[in-house]
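User: I'm writing a tutorial on reading structure tokens. Could you give me a worked example: one chain, its sequence, then its tokens, then a sentence or two explaining what the tokens reveal?
Assistant: Sure. Here is the example chain.
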Amino acid sequence: MKLFECTFGIIELFRKRLRPAISGALLAAWLAALLPSAALAGTDLVFGTYAADKPTATVKQYQPFLSYLSGRMSEELGEPVTIRLKIAKEYEEGIRQLASGEVDFARFGPASYVHVMKENPGIRIIAMESKNGQKRFKGVIVVHHDSSVQSVEELAGLTFAFGDELSTIGRYLAQEYLLEAGISSADLHEFAYLGRHDLVGEAVGAGRYTAGALKESTYKKLVAKGVPIRVLASFDNVTKPWLASADMPENVLEAMRRVMLSSEHEEIVRRISRNGFLLGEDQDYDIIRRAMERSLAF
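And here are its predicted structure tokens:
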């Protein structure tokens, strides 16, 4: 603080004694030369995601981890790292923001990763979330707790709620699962895309739809809140990738990866990914590509 107070005092004296015509650019150059380089250096990053659940819950979920990540990356890089959070309202907007470099890194669902790679093949996987040391977890199809439906095949002629049209669980994997049970859109009385996972569960609990697809973690939260739903079926999904924009410097990406891969026992990290992170590769998402292709027949 004393350095800055002294520097700005000298600048004021400099202004008074020299001609009024002195330019701001010259002063800025003089200040840059006077101050230590460490005081001016730094890395500013924007983290992007979309609201698969309520936006307020998304902010609450990410802020502690992003603060932790910026602190650890500052140590790794030897310079201040700041991270801002940017939440897209819809999946498509979030995909566009990462593909265009509007955000520097992001946490996406697997299907969104496949989509963003089509828009910008320069996107890179920083790490994948771990579920008990594995790269797979469950999506679920739910019905009302009191529903008489006991199998997916019984959904023919009834109604179904999907999530976002670009959702891995909420659309692609659920539709692949229905197709394997012999049910296409023509076999349903009605279906709709409701967007967020929590909206799907709440709609099924309220009786507006017979069944719906959502992620298992959201299902558990809704049941804990008293939403009357139960699991009818479950299916495998791949854990979420954390992705770097094509423009992120390699040293920044590597620093972020080192922090994430070495942080599995940190409580703040466990709130984001309960078992930390794993190295990820593009082929880890081949089953998602297959589901996206098969869902075209839905």
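What the tokens reveal: The chain has twelve helices and eleven strands. The first strand starts at residue 43 and ends at 50.
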